[in-house]
Amino acid sequence: MVKTSDKGFTLLELMISLTIFSVMLLIIFGAIRLGYRSIEKAEKTTEFLERIRTTINIIEAQLQSQIPLTYEENGEKKLYFAGQKEFVQFSSNYSAWSGQRGYVRVIYNIESDSNGKKALYVTENTISMDDSRKTMLLNGLEGISFRYFLKEPQNLDGEWRDEWNETAFMPEKVAINIFDSSRKISMNLLLSIKNKPSHSINKPSPSPEPRRDFPKQGVPVKN
């Protein structure tokens, strides 16, 4: 006579099985969540890098289309170009808003928010018109600044400056430094300037002549 076993799972075995199953589910869902978070972070970084690319394209287009407008002070003609670490201003023949030709005054300035993060703004208005426009291009950065490359005839190597006060000529290049450790971004972008006059200004000033203003602490100039 064959004996059969009717022995089943004990409560302890069942609890161990459920515990192992729960741990496996936790690991699987954790891996899926981590994967989604990684994808989301990568998408945000890619989106931010695209914003930087678009911003640099706008700045470069306006610098390449800058026009050496001058104003007269005490009988001396001076260029409407000035810059510090937190702002740069110049005149351009290209509008960031309309994308069309036309004399505009441009100011790129850097401001800090309540958390100490940096944001880059652009302010633009048509020469001789009260139509000032301002918008934010980048935000949430740990650091962003401008630098200017000076190359004089007697100094073939040239030098980088944090401030541009020359009124007779423009820098050869403008550098934009962007840094943010949370996104693992560190960039030093160099933009060349076209249509720059030589070290002596011989071209007549257009009419009307723009003002030369120096915003303090990144505050944009308003007409």
Question: What order do the SSEs take from the amino end to the carboxyl end, as H and E?
Answer: HEEEEEEEEEEE
Specify the structural class.
alpha+beta
On the 0-100 scale, what is the average pLDDT?
A: 79
Gross morphology: elongated
Q: Uncertain regions: pLDDT < 50 for 5+ in a row?
A: 198-223
Task: Provide a count of the helices.
Answer: 1
Binned, the helix content reads 10-25%
Q: Using DSSP, what is the number of strands?
A: 11
Largest sheet: 5 strands, antiparallel
Radius of gyration, CA atoms, in whole angstroms: 29 Å
The strands making up the biggest β-sheet line up spatially as 3-4-5-6-7
How would you summarize what this structure contains?
By secondary structure, the chain is of the alpha+beta class. It has one helix spanning 11-64, and strands spanning 70-73, 76-79, 82-84, 87-94, 101-112, 118-126, 133-141, 143-150, 159-161, 173-180, 185-192. 24% of the residues lie in helices and 34% in strands.
What does this structure look like?
With 223 residues, the protein is α+β, with helices and mostly antiparallel strands. The chain contains 1 helix and 11 strands; from the N terminus they run αβββββββββββ. It has a 5-stranded antiparallel β-sheet with strand order 3-4-5-6-7, with helices on one face. A 4-stranded antiparallel β-sheet has the order 9-8-10-11, covered by helices on one side. Strand 6 and strand 7 form a beta hairpin. The longest helix has 54 residues. It is elongated, with a radius of gyration of 29 Å. It starts with 10 loop residues before the first helix and ends in a 31-residue tail after the last strand. 21% of the residues are buried. The C terminus is likely disordered.
